[in-house]
Amino acid sequence: MAYQALYRVWRPQTFSDVIGQSVITQTLKNAVASKMTSHAYLFSGPRGTGKTSCAKILAKAVNCLNPHDGEPCNECEICQAENENRLNDVIEIDAASNNGVEEIRDIRDKVKYAPTEAKFKVYIIDEVHMLSQGAFNALLKTLEEPPANVMFILATTEPQKIPATIISRTQSFTFRRISRQDILERMVYILKDKHIEYDEEALNIIAASAEGGMRDALSILDQALSYGDDQLTLKNAQEVTGALSNDQITAYMTAIANNKSAQALESLYKILESGRSAVRFTEMIIRVCRNLILYNSNSDLSEQMDNTIMTKDLLNLADKFDNKRLFYIVDQVSAAQKNLKNSNQTDVYMEILTVKISEPKVIDQPDVEEVKVDNQEVEKLSGQVEKLQKEIKNLSTGNVQPQSEKPKKATHKSKTNHLNKTAIYKVLDNATKSDLAVAKDIWPDLMSKLSVTQRAKMRVADPVAASVDGIVVAFDFELWYEQVQEDTEFLDELSNSAGTLLKKDCQIVLVPKDQWPRIRKEYISNNIDLPKKENVESKAEPKKDPAVDEALNLFGNEIVDIKDD
Ligand SMILES: [Zn+2]
């Protein structure tokens, strides 16, 4: 017999089998038992949280010949047919592959016919947000006048993409992520049933990386098992999930303990390059700190330590950290996690965090409790990162005197000095929306021509305005901006590459993003042929301001965002 994936074999067959969604399953059970089911349901929630399983159970329960308290019996012919996926009256559609209007029209035509074997004809539409607008319209028509004995169950991971008109015609349920504990228990149950030996920590790693999805957890478990001979080892789990090895975390924490920012960054880069997730890495730092705190505290507490991650090398670091510093690190890492989850610039935040926690002196400041990341701080730390990156570069090229660059740097102190307003204005003089669209269009190709380090510098930058022969590029972090701005050779290379892609001359001009609205506004009020009034920009009605009107004519209202500052 062909191998069947764990998540298929262990798919729940009754509402009470479903893990972590008791409110939903209880409600559905009650509805079935009291014959009060709705003709349309919307199941939304993260992947692998039981939406499709519940849809199948519901389809079975409403059709079961001997239901008990709203649960399907799984024994009658209808239940058995459905369990073997051969019940013609339950129709599963994957909108991710059937997203055309035709398929939904097909439903509309066939929905009129009564079910052939069962009481209800049930349509389960998975990933319903993938339907085209036309298909949604066709579906809406069916939902507006549902034929008797038909039930629709729509499942989605992205409910915000579903038209409100559809949502309002369904009974909606939101599935939650499944707790780590619930996932752990389920895996233990399955492994025991299969008589497979397992390492506790391996299960922890899998449960953590499944991020609340049972299906993901079981798929990872499957993969980890396929590595080893009928046992689940820590190494296999780390391999499959991309979890950090103890060596990696030890190298990083040692650098932090010794206040060696450059080494810590170097070790961070190795971890990120090996494809480890930044969020998971931060979780690991917190776990290590927590264990070190327990170890430092007293013998009672240290018994609660997680010995699977605390190697001898890590425990040896305990002397170098006092608990005050460990708590500080945990605070900083937790604060960074919030940013990481909302950002696609995770590497930048990790760099900043690393520099921050490898500097012990920050703890002496009175306001450590307040873990806010304001722009000034980000800027200051970005500066330190930049300096350290240079140091790393120098160390690897054998130049052991990184300080030699310092005096030169000091003369460049004033940031606005190298802001090339003339060049920016030149682009704005002829800026159009369509040129900006073209610039954005070639941007990914342009980035792909750069080296890894060059691309790293540009990952916080985007085109914000463009003319026929120039592009203004704004940087999220002023310090990255400065670094590229100073590197004229790289800047020329960028302009040349852009020129090649556009098949014409093109000059790239840089600007820090936080200064961009001001510069743009200045341009609008300075450059337009009107007597300048001090407060015309702030006080005048935006729509009636002739300067703004003129600017709108010049380069479209996308660029002239008058609300921007
Ligand atoms: Zn049954």
From TrEMBL:
Alphabetically ordered keywords of this record: ATP-binding, DNA replication, DNA-directed DNA polymerase, Metal-binding, Nucleotide-binding, Nucleotidyltransferase, Transferase, Zinc
Recorded superkingdom: Bacteria
Native source species: Companilactobacillus keshanensis
Record flagged with keyword ATP-binding: yes
Domain AAA+ ATPase intervals: 37-179
Record lineage: Bacteria, Bacillati, Bacillota, Bacilli, Lactobacillales
Keyword Phosphoprotein assigned: no
UniProt cross-references to PANTHER family, sorted A to Z: PROTEIN STICHEL-LIKE 2, REPLICATION FACTOR C / DNA POLYMERASE III GAMMA-TAU SUBUNIT
Similarity comment: Belongs to the DnaX/STICHEL family.
Entries under Gene3D superfamilies matching the protein: 1.10.8.60, 1.20.272.10, P-loop containing nucleotide triphosphate hydrolases (3.40.50.300)
InterPro entries named in the record: AAA+_ATPase (IPR003593), ClpA/B (IPR001270), DNA_pol3_clamp-load_cplx_C (IPR008921), DNA_pol_III_gamma-3 (IPR022754), DNA_pol_III_sug/sutau_N (IPR012763), DNA_Rep/Repair_Clamp_Loader (IPR050238), HLD_clamp_pol_III_gamma_tau (IPR045085), P-loop_NTPase (IPR027417)
GO molecular function: DNA-directed DNA polymerase activity
UniProt-listed Enzyme Commission number(s): 2.7.7.7
Protein name from the UniProt record: DNA-directed DNA polymerase
Reaction(s) catalysed by this chain's protein: DNA(n) + a 2'-deoxyribonucleoside 5'-triphosphate = DNA(n+1) + diphosphate
Region (Disordered): 396-415
Stored NCBIfam families: dnaX_nterm, PRK05563.1
